[in-house]
Amino acid sequence: MAYLATHELSDLKPSVAARVWSVITGFFESVLEAQGRSAAVTRLQNMTDAQLAAEGVRRDDIVRYVFRDIYHV
After folding, report:
1. Cα–chain-centroid distance for residue 5?
2. Cβ neighbours of residue 65 under 8 Å, at least 6 residues apart?
3. For each of the chain's 73 residues, which pLDDT tens digit applies?
4. pTM above 0.70?
5. Which residues contact 40 (CB under 8 A, 6 or more apart)?
6. Cβ-based burial of 2 (10 A; exposed 0-12, middle 13-18, buried ≥19)
7. What is the 3-state secondary structure (H, E, C) of 16-61?
């Protein structure tokens, strides 16, 4: 007698190690994203008002501009 088992990939639960790895990589991705945004804020803050105007950003709106894709204010 033959036994055939078919499973969809969506039916398989990730292992504990895979879930832990996912959390760890997610954490480091968040850290890298935060560093990039921080560098963008610093770069814009170091620009003159004329350079900011050329970018279409007011000095008061630098942080809002850098985080515009996250916070829709």
Report:
1. 39
2. 44, 57
3. 666 666 665 566 779 999 999 999 999 999 999 999 999 999 999 999 999 999 999 999 999 999 998 887 5
4. no
5. 66
6. exposed
7. HHHHHHHHHHHHHHHHHHHHHHHHHHHHHHCCCHHHHHHHCCCHHH
